[in-house]
Amino acid sequence: MIGVGRRCLPGGHVLDATTVPAPPVPRAGFTARCTRALLSPWARLSLLLVLLAAAGALVLLFDPQRLLTQGWPPRAGGLMAVLAFGAGYGLCTVAFVPRPLLNLAAGALFGSRLGLATALAGTVLGAGVAFGLGRLLGQDALRPLLRGRWLRAADGQLSRHGFRSMLAARLFPGVPFWAANYCAAVSRMGWLPFLLATALGSVPNTAAYAVAGARASAPTSPAFLLAMACIAVPALAGTVVAWRQRHRLRGR
Hints:
Radius of gyration: 27 Å
Shape: globular
Largest sheet: 2 strands, antiparallel
Strand content: under 5%
Distance between the termini: 64 Å
Strand order of the largest sheet: 1-2
Structural class: mainly alpha
Number of helices: 12
């Protein structure tokens, strides 16, 4: 409305002629509403659960554990075999395949040194993929649920002391690999501390299993027995760390 002065509207209301009424706000269209629904935290969490379920189903279908008994296909070898195994290792950890089985297979297929390098590369790859999926698809939906005292204390520990906490989790064989990945993703831990602690903390346990896999044909050899001892030592150290953290969480 253009002009100067006031106009009287029916009912005695006065409208300033210099004031332009605000246009009505258009309602969101069907496409916009669908987009918001698909990008909502719970929709993304549902997508994550579907992806993990599909990955688990693929693992059951292809059964990668048979590498321990059947070995690598005869025609597969060289650098391509190492790269393929490392990539498959990482994807299998995302799909909840136990790392000890994969570490034993790496040692049995490639020997102690190359098996260790391949297994560590797959470990970091799998941890990074799981962390990224959890951070992108699950964090926004799950963080509001951290209301219990223990959950808040654990989240605070991971957020403030990410490297130290993740290093302890990797050294302790009793902590499932996938559980540590997704718990860290829900927290506010950074990428660099997570990946660095994963790489360093996984070395002792991975090396022990790789050596055990490489020397599995001679279970009485000193190397095999030393590998078994190295598996037990981190477990004991991790138990002590977990016991101390348990008392700290209770005191908060």
